[in-house]
Amino acid sequence: MESIKTDLLIIGAGSGGLSVAAGAVQMGASVVLVERGEMGGDCLNYGCVPSKALIAAASQAHAPELSGAFGVDLDPARVDWSRVRDHVQETIARIAPVDSQERFEGLGVRVIRAHARFVSEREVEAGHHRIIARRIVLATGSSPAVPPVSGLKDVSYLTNETLWDLQELPSHLLILGGGPIGMEMAQAFRRLGAQVTVVEGARALGREDPEMAAIVLDHLRGEGVTILEGEMVTSARQDGSAIELRLGSGKVLTGSHLLVAAGRMPNTEGLGLAEAGIETTKTGIRVDAGLRTTNRRVYAIGDAAGGLQFTHLAGYHAGIVIRSALFGLPAKASTYHVPRATYTRPELAHVGLTEVEARQRYGDRLEVLREALQHNDRAIAERETAGLAKVMVHRGRPVGATIVGSQAGDLVSTWALALSAKVKIAQVAGMVAPYPTLGELNKRVAGSYFTPRLFENRTVKAVTRTVQRLLP
Predict the structure, then answer these.
(1) Are 165 and 217 part of one and the same domain?
(2) What DSSP string describes 413-472?
């Protein structure tokens, strides 16, 4: 067995682990990276990248449904599932070199493709290697959670990891779970021609502002997606090629395929965490504000840390760890400025406090600004007027924003910056956005903060009249 000593050992080559490895090695640290699966992790191979490629294909398939309003008649879409799959795989292949073993070895990272397991507080075995590291980063990601539904283990169900292996387009796709993954895939497969039924035990997109989520759900229902909320699946059964779900209400659903999209669980099993004195919780590895575990030499980032599960959060965590592990500087992670987005059409994006959370915290001192997308000239020209921007403001500073509409995931970045930099609402209102763009939505909603203060204020009107009389 080869013995290796290094400054930094990273377990997991997903978004967070790769970001730490690239940053650390280029700053002069010796780095070992261990990955038992695919380089790039879930996001590249099974999550963000393939799902967005599929959504893009679905948008093209849906184009004939919308083109008539522009005076352009297109033939009905003809979907070739094998070519759709090729598009998804080509998208992954184009991005893969950035995350490849060859690239990171070229940077100077020692890459070991094996399962890693702690044998002591600072020693890890991986294949035929024993690695001793000054600092260790756990970036092991997460895997699909499978609910304890009777009979489900005997059903040929899909997850986001196996969905891309489908050899044919489902005729009727049943989806268990109405969160972001479930709703994105529901719309995509419906647009590609499948019948789709979503079953959600509580409220679909339940984490989001109910008013804003309703806009998305109404749109999906309008496209033909069946969404059953407040329905629990009590049992699952496979009968030949058909899959049957029995619901608590007594309903029975029958489909050709089943996608389980009921959340994710952090990958912590088999790592020997107890040997290293690392504690876990129900949601992941226990960490402090600086992302250190109960073993002070070890950090956990991304999904493994048991908090929000976003690729961009893992990248943010990487910066925190580099600051602390490489330079010994104080660094704490926070989430108030970290946005999230659901890539349905229309998109739904959020950062900071929701309206409910903000009202609970600030009460009558909160102001909620609203601006409908139907008043945006670019949205009107492109017939993408379904949507709304809602910004929560306390004492002149934004504390949260939710946007539903075309490109909401891009638009919310303005508010993520505002929260991160503690920008005042006046500064957002004062920016100049090019016309006509969807970006004007952010300027207009910020400007609405001053509407009652300027245009509905008697004192302002009186001062204006006085000044006008005095001017030559």
Answers:
(1) yes
(2) HHHHHHHHTT--HHHHHTS---SS-TTHHHHHHHHTTTHHHHTS-HHHHHHHHHHHHH--
Per-residue pLDDT tens digits for 109-132: 999 999 999 999 999 999 999 999
The 10s digit of each residue's pLDDT in 76-85 is 999 999 999 9
Question: What local confidence, expressed as pLDDT, does residue 132 receive?
Answer: 97
- The residue-averaged pLDDT of 158-166 equals 95
pTM for the predicted model, two decimal places: 0.94
Q: Is 387 helix (H, G, I), strand (E, B) or coil?
A: coil
Question: Which residue range is the domain that position 399 belongs to?
Answer: 340-454
pLDDT (mean) for 182-199: 98
Last residue in a domain, options 262, 293, 310: 262
Residues 226, 253, single domain; the answer is yes
| DSSP, residue by residue, 268-326 | -TTS-GGGGT--B-SSSB---TTSB-SSTTEEE-GGGGTS---HHHHHHHHHHHHHHHH
Q: Taken in order 345, 405, 45, 174, is the CA torsion positive or negative? A: negative
151: left (phi over 0), alpha (psi -120 to 50) or beta: left
| Residue 13, pLDDT above cutoff 80 | yes
> What are residue 20's phi and psi, to 5 degrees?
-65, -45
Q: Tell the residue number behind the tokens 């400007």, with chain if given.
A: 447
39-43, 288-292, 317-321, 462-466: least confidently modelled range: 462-466
- The pLDDT score that the predictor gives to residue 63 is 95
- Residue 104 domain-assigned? yes
For residue 86, tell me if it sits in a domain: no
Q: Is 347 domain-assigned? A: yes
Contacts of 269 (CB under 8 A, 6+ apart): none
| CATH of residue 316 | 3.50.50.60
List residues forming the annotated binding site.
52, 140-142, 177-184, 200, 263, 303
Closest CA to 303 of 351, 259, 267: 267
- For residue 96, the model assigns a pLDDT of 97
pLDDT at 458: 77
Question: Residue 439 falls within a domain, yes or no?
Answer: yes
Q: Which residues are part of a known binding site for NAD(+)?
A: 177-184, 200, 263
Strand 257-260 versus strand 397-405 pairing type:
unpaired
| pLDDT > 70? residue 43 | yes
Count structural domains, the chain.
Answer: 3
Annotated binding site for FAD: 52, 140-142, 303
Q: How many residues does the chain have?
A: 472
Q: What is the DSSP letter of 77?
A: P
Which tens digit of pLDDT belongs to each residue from 332-365?
A: 999 999 999 999 999 999 999 999 999 999 999 9
Q: Is residue 141 left, alpha or beta, with left meaning phi > 0 and alpha meaning psi from -120 to 50?
A: left
Two tokens at 241?
């090629």
